[in-house]
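I'd like us to work through together how a protein chain folds, taking it slowly. We need material for that, and I hope you will provide a protein of your own picking. Go ahead whenever you are ready, and we will take it from there:
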Amino acid sequence: MKNNYIIGAGPAGLIAAYYMKDYKVIDKSPLGQLKAPFIPGPRLLQNTTNMSELIDEIFGGDTRVEIAKIGYMENGFPEDKPYEGFKTKYVEKTRGTKSIESSHLSEGKNEIEHIEIGMLTEESYAAVFNRLLDIIKKRGQLIEEHIENIDINNKTITFANGGVSKYNEIISTINLNILSKLAPGMDIDLSEFKTKTKCFYKTSYDWMVDLQGYNYIYSADSEWTRKTYFDSYIVYESVEPIDSKVIEDNIVQMKFENMPIQIVESKNIDSINGIKMLGRFAQWNHKVKANEVLDRVKLWIS
């Protein structure tokens, strides 16, 4: 019997495990950032054929399609389209480069069709992955353990509890920087994989200018770079920490600062030393979201 493993039980790992039943998923703390006390930004289940089929399959069709509207801030007010030079200014501010990728700024879209489940709104995204986690747990696919080492020459995984397992295939869904520490000797030059920091601020709804029904708004010339409207709070993102108890007169309730998670330049890694990559920070591709992960997995099994 083959020993096939998926490293990481975040969204990418759970999607892969759902469709690839002969793989075990290794993660001491499943769901990762989805367990954070607030949603740090837009988390949308885009309305693609594969995503619609997956959600219908696990939720029995109790879904609906909604529209998320995107704005671009200019002179203090949101507009449907970015003004001339906005993209260059925004990318230079958030990534420290003038190189614009097609995926930046929501791929230039003003509206995104996405799927919501039952009575849920912003919680729909997390609900899908909680359901997938329940399914793979019931199947016995989850190994809740830390990895100590991956020996790519002898094809073994050493666990923190001292256990050792040979492997046939590995799919990694974790950050390449973390994977390289677990698997020394990988053919990768980490100096090419640069990140910038992001800060996130959950605030109250004490003040809001949003007359046109935007779900989230980009800004290139304010202290924040994006704000996302949720049902009961607003989340602001910034490059540098915002040293204030209020943002736009909205009271800061919680914050995460200086998180090195902004990919500067996408690489789109397929595999390294026989380990397949799946997910944004594994493939190192800013474009990759849940629907791209799902499409990739479906191609693998077709």
The mean pLDDT is 93. The chain has two domains: 1-41+119-190+266-302, 73-109+195-263. Helices lie at 11-19, 49-59, 86-95, 104-107, 124-139, 176-182, 280-283, 290-301.
